[in-house]
Amino acid sequence: MSSPATRIVRRAEEKDILAMAAINASVFSGDRDNPESAEKWMRCFFNAFPLYQYFVIEVDDSIAGYIGWQFHGGFLRSAPVIELEQLGISKNYQGQGLGPELTDKSISEVAKWCRKNNSRIESHIYLIVWGYAHNFNAMKVYFEKFTDGVMGMRRQHGERTETMLRLKLPALLPIREE
Ligand SMILES: CC(C)(COP(=O)(O)OP(=O)(O)OC[C@H]1O[C@@H](n2cnc3c(N)ncnc32)[C@H](O)[C@@H]1OP(=O)(O)O)[C@@H](O)C(=O)NCCC(=O)NCCS
């Protein structure tokens, strides 16, 4: 009997960009079927760290998916806002719970980074995501994680409606010394 697959979630490194771009070009329309263009796009975000933070999920040493989080409006906001900007799971690995696992674990990591680097947080970190209303697979994952529910609506890409979901995460900061 084969042993169960090993899954690891970790911060993305430069060596991961090609694999991430291959996933991007196969599951998103922005650079569909053009991994070179996807790589160019993703390198911009990768180089924007810590404004933008990528994480990957590895299954048995293969990059099976990635997620990107973007900080909005400055690093020292009293009510920080961090957006799940993109979540992509390779077609071979979709439907196996990797997206939810990557979302959960990367939320812990971006929130940890935020707490460590922002001494002005008042009480909560606000996590948001915009998702196409018709992308049922993604919305299923998002509704389970961003439990404050729908907080906004927009039509940024043509007529396709997106809704914004939110998770208000308690910051749980230690009591500050006087
Ligand atoms: C949306 C996405 C991130 C979800 O990640 P995931 O690891 O597949 O998540 P799950 O395994 O929890 O699947 C979520 C739901 O979608 C369904 N699903 C996922 N991929 C599927 C596929 N290829 N075909 C049919 N159903 C699929 C699952 O069955 C599940 O529904 P269920 O619980 O009713 O069975 C991933 O499918 C993906 O990358 N899709 C393409 C890119 C995308 O749309 N990204 C989100 C927008 S930024």
In short:
The chain is α+β, with helices and mostly antiparallel strands and 178 residues long. It has helices at residues 17-27, 35-47, 98-117, 136-145, and strands at 7-11, 52-59, 62-72, 81-89, 124-132, 149-157, 160-170.
Number of helices: 4
Total domains: 1
> For this structure, what is the CATH class?
Alpha Beta
**Which class do the helix and strand fractions yield?**
alpha+beta
Q: What portion of the residues fall into strands of 2 or more residues?
A: 25-35%
Q: Assign the CATH superfamily.
A: Gcn5-related N-acetyltransferase (GNAT)
Order of helices and strands: EHHEEEHEHEE
Question: What is the terminal separation in angstroms?
Answer: 59 Å
The CATH architecture can be given as 3-Layer(aba) Sandwich
Contiguous runs where pLDDT drops below 50 for at least 5 residues: none
- Radius of gyration based on Cα positions: 17 Å
Largest sheet: 7 strands, mixed
The hetero compounds bound to this protein are: coenzyme A
What general form does the structure show?
globular
Strand arrangement in the largest pleated sheet: 1-2-3-4-5-7-6
User: Percent helix among the residues?
Assistant: 25-40%
CATH topology value: Aminopeptidase
Q: How many DSSP E strands? A: 7
